[in-house]
Amino acid sequence: MRRSQLRSSFRGIFAILAVGVAMASSAWAGPRFAVLHSFPNNDGKDGSGPTGSVVFDPTGSLYSTTEEGGTYSGCGTVFKMTPDAHGVWAESVLHSFNENIDGCYPAAGPTFDAQGNIYGTTSSGSGNNDGGTLFELTPDKDSPGSWTTSVP
């Protein structure tokens, strides 16, 4: 009888420990949320209204688009977010769209090819009857951090 009471006590203690460990590990591994950058709610030069998905490069920087803002009539941007050693992210605009040249309102997040060129689409501007464009951004080898835009 005493042995069964001892087993029951150990089972109870083990169950309490298991629940405690499960609760602690879920708290440690719980979801984390952080705002990396706040876009202005107007046609700011760094863009507004982020759209589409984000894509990471091999160095850990991420890229995406904004639907509005930029330096040309609010047609949107392609931007890059770069983390520093302390986890602080800095935004830089790679391209501001001009509806008469390369389109307006990026319609989806960008994608990379093997050479590091960025591709995406716009939903209006340029093209036939302002029907949008397929664009390419190519890193400028002579000027690091600069990009050349083309509409194939």
Essential attributes:
1 helix, 152 residues, 2 domains, disordered N terminus, 9 strands, single chain
How do you describe this structure in short?
This protein is an alpha+beta fold and 152 residues long. The chain folds into two domains: 1-33; 48-150, no CATH class.
Structure description:
With 152 residues, the chain is α+β, with helices and mostly antiparallel strands. It has two domains: 1-33; 48-150, no CATH class. It is built from one helix and nine strands, in the order H-E-E-E-E-E-E-E-E-E. It has one helix at 2-28; strands spanning 48-56, 62-68, 77-83, 89-96, 104-106, 111-112, 118-124, 134-139, 147-150. The strands form two sheets. Strands 5, 6, 7, 8 and 9 form a five-stranded antiparallel beta sheet that branches. Strands 1-2-3-4 form a four-stranded antiparallel beta sheet, with no helix packed on it. A hairpin with a 5-residue loop joins strand 1 (48-56) and strand 2 (62-68). The protein is globular and about 50 Å long. The model is unreliable at 3-26 (pLDDT under 50).
Question: Layout of SSEs?
Answer:
Layout: H1 2-28, E1 48-56, E2 62-68, E3 77-83, E4 89-96, E5 104-106, E6 111-112, E7 118-124, E8 134-139, E9 147-150
Antiparallel strand pairs: 1-2, 2-3, 3-4, 5-7, 6-7, 7-8, 8-9
